[in-house]
Specification:
It is a single chain. The chain contains 8 helices and 4 strands; from the N terminus they run ββααααββαααα. It is α+β, with helices and mostly antiparallel strands. The longest helix is centred in the first third of the chain and has 16 residues.
Length: 206
């Protein structure tokens, strides 16, 4: 028998003896009546792990940026950003990276690595055309000489540049993770070079 709000149901027995005799030898009729005994149990709450908040992910990305910046600048990330003279804080950069990575199903550390490699967290970067190389622009070093690519002016917005790069990388599902992803972004499928930034950051932070 199932009742609303009842989790457990235990069946007991009520033994009724004659009012005129003891239970035992010579006792009068003994009747065994099954009696349902309801046992109330506290509902168990399911503990489902929650993903980290956006703020927590931003803190983690800022830590990654700081760790990699100190490999070149002992004064750290914030001093490096001051030298660039741009209006973007470490938290601004981390917010761009976290949001665009989530939208495109990427590891944020991949985007941190690309921005570091291409611009050292500087938004207003424009490559030259020396040695016949095409011009690259923005925080993620996007080449603008291919058809359908954004303009250099558009890429000077770091949020746009990071978003475009994230969408580009998302075109390679299952094949864009860590160093392999970075090498493909840098030079194509077979350009597996010294792109060890992402794995290095993982070892530092995880």
């Amino acid at each position: 028998m199932k009742q609303s709000g009842v989790i457990g149901l235990v069946t007991g027995a009520l033994i009724v003896g004659s009012l005129f005799g003891s239970i035992g030898e010579g006792a009068h009729a003994i009747e065994v009546i099954p009696v349902p005994i309801v046992v109330q149990q506290e509902p168990q709450s399911e503990c489902v792990p929650q993903p980290p908040s956006r703020e927590a992910r931003i803190v983690k990305v800022v830590q990654a940026m700081e760790a990699i910046a100190q490999t070149e600048s002992p004064q750290g990330l914030r001093k490096l950003l001051e030298v660039h003279g741009e209006p973007y804080t470490a938290e601004d950069w981390a917010g761009f990276i976290v949001d665009r990575a989530e939208e495109n199903g990427l590891d944020p550390l991949v985007l941190v690595s690309i921005v570091w490699k291409e611009s050292r967290f500087s938004a207003w970067v424009e490559g030259d055309r020396k040695k016949g190389r095409a011009r690259s622009c923005g925080a993620t070093g996007v080449r603008t000489d291919y058809k359908g690519r954004p303009t250099c002016k558009q890429l000077m917005d770091p949020n746009f540049a990071i978003g475009w790069t994230a969408q580009h990388l998302a075109k390679f599902p299952g094949a864009c993770d860590g160093d392999l992803c970075l090498s493909r972004y840098n030079g194509g499928k077979y350009e597996v070079r010294v792109w060890r930034t992402t794995d290095w950051m993982r070892r530092q932070l995880l």
